Amino acid sequence: MNLPAEPHRFRADAAATAAVERLRIALEAAFETASPARGDEALGHGIRTALEAALADDALVTPAQRACGTGTYQRHLIFADPRGRYAVASLVWPPGQASPVHAHHTWCGYAVLDGTLTETLYTWDEAAGHARETRSRPRAAGAVSFAGRGRGAAHRLANSGDAPVVSLHVYGVTGQQIGTHVNDVLPLAHAA
After folding, report:
1. pLDDT (tens digit, 9 = 90+) per residue, 145-180?
2. If pLDDT is split at 50, 70 and 90, which confidence band does 192 have?
3. Position 192 in a domain
4. Range of the domain at 150
5. Model pTM greater than 0.85?
6. CATH number of the domain to which 98 belongs
7. Counting beta carbons within 10 angstroms of the beta carbon of residue 118, is it exposed (0 to 12), middle (13 to 18) or buried (19 or more)?
8. pLDDT-derived band at 4, boundaries 50, 70, 90
């Protein structure tokens, strides 16, 4: 039997694999309780419950999946459902980085693992064809959120602090679509 040269790495990988399996089981439970007739509400409750459990699982996001890039936030794919129903990723936010103002082409849930994000919420003005800021709020470690698809839940996430922030996201897309089929980037209203 070939054992790794660094047994601590083997234990870390095994712990991460077990943590991903626990999250997968929790997400399966979310899909079992949801039905098309019940809409996003039942699924949202299940996704939030799975994310809340994931917050307590330190092994879920490995050091490599906490790697912070420069210039923009980084997405690290953690798991993709083999049936194509969802993908799980860590997002690592360097200081000063933000997402564009966006809604979602699919449902999305997220939890803040480390640090604090600022979430700015927007309303979509269909007639004018732009988003208008409504309010901002801090989302500290432990915060969990879920939104269905569509422009009714437009927001922007930002790291306004001086240290990296790590968040965990579950999107209703395949792993291959995580960078292309999630965000619906929106134009902003011009300041008066």
Report:
1. 999 999 999 999 999 999 999 999 999 999 999 989
2. low
3. no
4. 7-185
5. yes
6. 2.60.120.10
7. middle
8. very low
Q: Quote the DSSP letter at residue 66.
A: G
- For residue 137, being part of any structural domain is answered with yes
**Cβ-Cβ contacts under 8 Å for 103 (sequence gap 6 or more):** 124, 149, 150, 151, 152, 153, 154, 155, 183, 184, 186
Structural domain count of the chain = 1
Secondary structure (H, E, C), 88-157 = EEEEEECCCCECCCEEECCCEEEEEEECEEEEEEEEEECCCCEEEEEEEEEEECCCEEEECCEEEEEEEE
Rounded to a whole number of angstroms, the distance between the first and last alpha carbons of the chain is: 69
DSSP summary character for residue 86: -
HSE toward the beta carbon, residue 162, CA cutoff 13 A:
0
Which is nearest to 147 in space by CA: 175, 119, 174?
A: 119
Is pLDDT at 2 greater than 80 in this prediction? Answer: no
Residue 190 included in any domain = no
List pLDDT tens digits, range 20-60.
Answer: 999 999 999 999 888 655 567 889 999 999 999 999 999 99
Tell me, yes or no, whether 1 lies in a domain: no
Q: Which two tokens stand for residue 167?
A: 């968040």
**DSSP helix/strand/coil, 78:** strand
